[in-house]
């Protein structure tokens, strides 16, 4: 009988896999993980943009652009540069205090103009244009008739004083011109709509009460109608 072989008392180590090979990540798996991580936030952002996700109060704040961050917030009518306003002036109403520039760029409070005399304001859409020149020259030609009845004439428009002064000199206009660039007084008289001035005229008696107005009026008719009213009221 063949002798038995004694089992070795020393433990046999199992075959080990190279640690370098086992630790190496699979390239394809890594690429897939990266793609998923990138696509996820994009899909969520797209859903948020379409209104498909209601984040509520817990939704992350949207980062504003530099222009939006620096833009001032509106203050419900308290913003600077608001247009002034006067109460509407109708027949029987008194001319309010309001300061305008004349053709010499001097301040004129219109309420002071009626302290000693009656006043006629004739309004033109734009200085040195054909229709407005016809109206202005019509008042020029009968200007002495107005002053003889203790009335002063003023041309009122939204033109700048420099443009009015040039027109005055060009056409030898003997009366002052008043500049109302924001059409505050013009609007109060009911002659300013849509950023334009309606051709018209308004007659205030001494003391400032509005006694007559023609709006709209034709360029050639304005000085004639105004003079007729002045003569009747003075008789």
Throw out a few tags for this protein.
9 strands, 235 residues, alpha+beta
Q: What would you note in describing this structure?
A:
- The structure is a single chain.
- By secondary structure, the protein is α+β, with helices and mostly antiparallel strands.
- It has helices at residues 19-23, 27-49, 66-70, 130-141, 143-148, 161-171, 184-188, 221-234, and strands spanning 99-102, 107-109, 118-123, 151-157, 177-179, 192-193, 196-197, 200-204, 210-214.
- The chain has a seven-stranded mixed sheet. Strands 6-7 form a two-stranded antiparallel ribbon.
- Helix 4 (130-141) runs parallel beside helix 8 (221-234).
- The model is unreliable at 5-9, 18-23, 40-62 and 64-81 (pLDDT under 50).
Structural class: alpha+beta
Helix content: 25-40%
- Which regions contain 5 or more consecutive residues with pLDDT less than 50? 5-9, 18-23, 40-62, 64-81
Spatial strand sequence of the major β-sheet? 2-1-5-4-3-8-9
| Mean of residue pLDDT values | 79
- Helix tally equals 8
Termini Cα gap: 166 Å
Strand proportion, as a percent range, falls in: 15-25%
Q: Using DSSP, what is the number of strands?
A: 9
Order of helices and strands, N to C?
Answer: HHHEEEHHEHEHEEEEH
**CA-based gyration radius:** 43 Å
What kind of sheet is the major sheet? 7 strands, mixed
Morphology: globular
């Amino acid at each position: 009988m063949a002798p038995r072989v004694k089992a070795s008392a020393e433990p046999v180590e199992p075959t080990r896999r190279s640690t370098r090979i086992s630790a190496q990540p699979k390239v394809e798996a890594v690429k897939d993980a990266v793609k998923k991580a990138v696509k996820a936030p994009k899909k969520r952002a797209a859903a948020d943009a379409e209104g498909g996700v209601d984040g509520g109060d817990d939704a992350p704040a949207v980062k504003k652009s530099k222009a939006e961050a620096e833009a001032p917030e509106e203050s419900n009518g308290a913003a600077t540069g608001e247009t002034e306003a006067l109460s509407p002036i109708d027949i029987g109403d008194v001319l309010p205090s309001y300061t305008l520039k004349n053709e010499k760029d001097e301040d004129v409070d219109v309420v002071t103009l009626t302290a000693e005399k009656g006043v006629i304001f004739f309004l033109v859409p734009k200085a040195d244009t054909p229709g407005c020149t016809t109206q202005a020259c019509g008042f020029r030609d009968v200007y002495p008739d107005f002053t003889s009845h203790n009335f002063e004439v003023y041309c009122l428009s939204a033109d700048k004083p420099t443009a009015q002064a040039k027109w005055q000199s060009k056409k030898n206009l003997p009366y002052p011109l008043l500049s109302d660039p924001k059409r505050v007084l013009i609007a109060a008289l009911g002659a300013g709509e849509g950023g334009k001035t309606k051709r018209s005229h308004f007659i205030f008696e001494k003391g400032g009460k509005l006694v007559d107005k023609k709006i709209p009026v034709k360029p050639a008719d304005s000085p004639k109608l105004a003079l007729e009213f002045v003569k009747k009221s003075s008789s």
